[in-house]
Amino acid sequence: MERELDAMRGMKQRQIRIGAPYSLFECLLPAVVREFQDYFPDCEPVVVAGDSRELLPRLAAGDLDLAFGLRQASPDGKFFLPVFRDCMAFLVGPAHPWSDGEEPSAEAMAGMQYLLHARTAETGPMVADYFWKLRVKPRDPVVVGDMGSLSALLRTGHGVGIAAPWVARRELDAGRLVQVKVPGAPIERRWGIYTTDYREPSAVEQVFIELATFAAKLLG
């Protein structure tokens, strides 16, 4: 790949416009952008935050070159290039009754208040479908978009967080949060990069996609 990158450094693409949800700003994009700029110092990455409802129309309109997002059933007029998969997990503070490692019962799950870390429109319905398949009717989850705020709330011992472990990796590694074993099939999400169907990604954009795919393997 190094020889290919050396050949591409002389290309004249001066800007790459990328849309991405807020969670990837925290954990994935900084490393990808830094490495991309090492290879292409004359190509400016312009990164726009938003969820798929905002980013995909901008991609279709030509305002973006690439857009990160979750896989949709029928993203009309767009190609989806898979980057990584994750599974949502239940997270609690060390003082929470569920932190003992035991799998909670359906009755306990139904009576709990859930705090959902989700800034993508697709995640909420996935969580609702998970509970429906278990025949559990929980309270409506409270959406907490900021991981710091979610962690602070969970450390009080009240409520159960629903988030991807890679978003909470620092808190989990430090023991400030505990991942809970839960029943049923996992809430799996498929992340990727959307491009439009009216043009192929440029060689420079393809390098960005490959860098993102490699960095995603390190999320853990």
Automatic annotation (TrEMBL):
Pfam families: LysR_substrate (PF03466)
Superkingdom of the organism of origin: Bacteria
Entry-linked SUPFAM superfamilies: Periplasmic binding protein-like II
Coiled-coil region(s): none
CDD domains for this protein: PBP2_LTTR_substrate
Keywords: DNA-binding, Transcription, Transcription regulation
Domain LysR substrate-binding intervals: 12-212
Family membership noted in the UniProt record: Belongs to the LysR transcriptional regulatory family.
Name of the protein this chain belongs to: Substrate-binding domain-containing protein
